[in-house]
Structure formats: structure tokens, C-alpha cells
Design brief:
The protein is of the alpha/beta class. It has a single domain, classed as TIM Barrel (Alpha-Beta Barrel), CATH 3.20.20.370. The chain is built from 14 helices and seven strands. Helix 4 links the parallel strand 1 and strand 2. Helix 4 runs parallel beside helix 12 and helix 7 runs parallel beside helix 8. The protein is globular. 49% of the residues are buried.
Length: 322
């Protein structure tokens, strides 16, 4: 069935869709019943030198197993060169499909160029600041062109992405955007970040609670197309301010339901100039530190949590077959 048809039929499928898939997607990927499997994922590699440094620390010395790269940003070459110079690194490097440029003084433009994707460009010649602005001005064709340009840049640099995900959740802003995101995942046989199981944590987020019911039927069709699907997604850490982030991440691990969960963090090692980009430096450093804390590693062991990568998840999905 065509991907566009899958998206169009979502509302109809909701009438008969179960609350969540049983068994879990983790079980369907070959892990035992009741297994708690986690991808710890660092967003925003390539965004700045600080982001690169924090990502590397979180995976080399911490519990993180995955990251994704913002291909339109200025520090992408540094991170890709790191990957090439360290071919034995055992973690994911996917593409953080970037359709917004949210900061005030540090911004980026579409790789596809303004002439090809004018709806993705604001009055400064950069991508729009917000998801809402992007959804209002850009067409699905432009979104697809830009995502293809980001894939092409990665391939040109010698990077084969392990997965695709989405900066600021922009690909979920409209069914048409989501359709193109899924289309590229299927075309490139590359996993896409999409939750479709019990959605314990993502369902608790007010901004995304309505999305869960809409996305479950589509996620099952993504599985049918041969790509893996998450049971759940935790994105709440970026909103924590002046809190004990280590304790809160430990609580996530202790309370998660069985299944395949991706925990998204934003690990950065802020330099003296990072505050000129964003005020989020303390939150990002706390994420980096939490991943390296022995208490976090101890909790993983005590709770019997299995850490995995998108690479392993895709290999397991291939073994299961369509």
C-alpha cells in the first residue's frame, strides 16, 4: 500500500486500533518477554563544538548508545571526521532531520538552497525559528527536498546514517510531513524514530498526547514495511530546569514498562561561547554528566536494562523478516 494512503487512512484505523501492540515491539524484535530495552540517544551532534564534545563524552565515557547529526550546522565536519578517525566506535550516528533554526544569533539555512525550498526560509534567509512557522509556510515537497539534501550531504561525506529522527519534532507537525519522513525511511531502508507501542512516557506529555493515537496505526504500517518501531519515547529531560537530572533519569529507568524505549538527551560540554548560542548550557551539561555518573550505570545493571543501538535494532528487524 502506498505510504500516502497509510497516512490518509489513519483516522479510519483509529476506530479499530488496539490501545497498544501485544507483544511489545521489543519482543517482536527477538528480546525475551518482559525485557526492558533502551536506546540512550544524544540529539544535536554537529550543532556546535560543545555539542560534539558532549556527545563524544556521553558515548565514550557514559551510557549513551546513539546520536544524530544536524547536517545544516557548521560543526558537522568535526563530528564526521571524529567518526572516520575512530572506525571502531560502537554507537549510532543518524541524521537529525533539521527543518528549523531556533536560536537568535546562531542560525543555519536549508542545504537544498532558498531557490528550491523558499517555504523553509524566513526573512533572514535561514530556516524558521519554530515548528509552527515551518508547518505554516513549507510544503511537503519542500520538506522532502531538504531531507534528501541532508541525506545526500551525509553520503557525500562518507557517512551512512544508522537512522533518521527529527529536530524539534518537526516531521510530525503535519500528516504530509510525516508521510515524506516515512517515505525516505522506507526508500533508504533506514530506521526512523517512531513510537507505536504502549507509549508510557510520550503519552504523558501534554503536547504530544494527541499524537500517540494518531501515530500508532501508522507505526504498525512502518513495521510492516520492514522497519523497526519503538514501544515508547522519552523526551522530557530538556524541559528540566534547576533539578536533579540524574535522579530523574534514574526514575525513568526504574519506572519504564517493558519494551523498546528511546531516551533523548542533549549532552553538551559548554564552552565559554556556548551561552552566545543558547541558555540551555547547564541543562545540556547536566545530561552529559548524568550519563557518566556511576549511579546511572548501577541503575541500568540493577534494573536488568538492556542497552541497544539503532544498528542492532535494524539487524534484528531484518532477521524477523516482513
Amino acid at each position: 500500500m502506498m505510504i500516502k494512503s497509510l497516512i490518509t487512512l489513519t483516522c479510519c484505523l483509529l476506530l479499530t486500533a488496539p490501545a497498544f501492540a501485544a507483544p511489545t515491539y521489543a519482543e517482536r524484535l527477538g528480546w525475551p518477554a518482559g525485557a526492558k530495552v533502551v536506546i540512550i540517544h544524544v540529539d544535536d551532534a554537529g550543532m556546535s563544538h560543545s555539542s560534539n564534545a558532549g556527545t563524544i563524552q556521553a558515548v565514550e565515557h557514559g551510557a549513551a548508545t546513539s546520536c544524530s547529526i544536524m547536517m545544516p550546522c557548521g560543526w558537522v565536519p568535526e563530528f564526521v571526521h571524529y567518526l572516520k578517525d575512530n572506525p571502531g566506535v560502537d554507537f549510532d550516528a543518524g541524521l537529525h532531520m533539521t527543518l528549523t533554526a531556533e536560536w537568535k544569533n546562531y542560525r543555519w539555512a536549508p542545504l537544498a538552497g532558498q531557490a528550491r525550498v523558499p517555504g523553509l526560509v524566513d526573512e533572514e534567509g535561514c530556516m524558521w525559528h519554530s515548528v509552527e512557522e515551518t508547518a505554516t509556510h513549507a510544503t511537503a515537497d519542500e520538506v522532502e527536498l531538504e531531507m534528501r539534501a541532508q541525506i545526500d550531504r551525509a553520503l557525500t561525506m562518507g557517512l551512512k546514517p544508522t537512522h533518521f529522527d527529527t529536530h524539534m519534532g518537526t516531521v510530525y507537525a503535519t500528516p504530509e510531513f510525516m508521510e515524506r519522513y516515512i517515505k525516505l525511511g522506507v526508500e533508504y531502508d533506514t530506521p526512523i524514530m517512531i513510537p507505536g507501542g504502549h507509549c508510557q512516557f510520550i503519552g504523558q506529555e501534554e503536547a504530544r498526547s494527541g499524537l500517540v493515537d494518531q501515530i500508532r496505526p501508522v507505526a504498525e504500517q512502518v513495521w510492516a514495511a520492514g522497519l523497526p518501531v519503538l514501544d515508547d519515547l522519552f523526551t522530557g529531560g530538556y524541559g528540566w530546569k534547576d533539578e536533579d537530572q540524574l535522579a530523574r533519569y534514574i526514575q525513568v529507568l526504574k519506572t519504564m514498562e517493558p519494551g523498546l524505549l528511546q531516551i533523548i538527551i542533549h549532552a553538551s560540554d559548554p564552552s565559554a561561547i556556548f551561552p552566545l548560542i543558547s541558555g540551555s548550557g547547564p541543562t545540556r551539561k547536566a545530561d552529559m554528566d548524568a550519563m557518566q555518573d556511576p549511579r546511572f550505570h548501577q541503575t541500568i545493571e540493577e534494573e536488568g536494562i538492556i542497552l541497544t543501538t539503532w544498528r542492532e535494532v535494524k539487524e534484528r528487524r531484518d532477521r524477523v523478516g516482513k
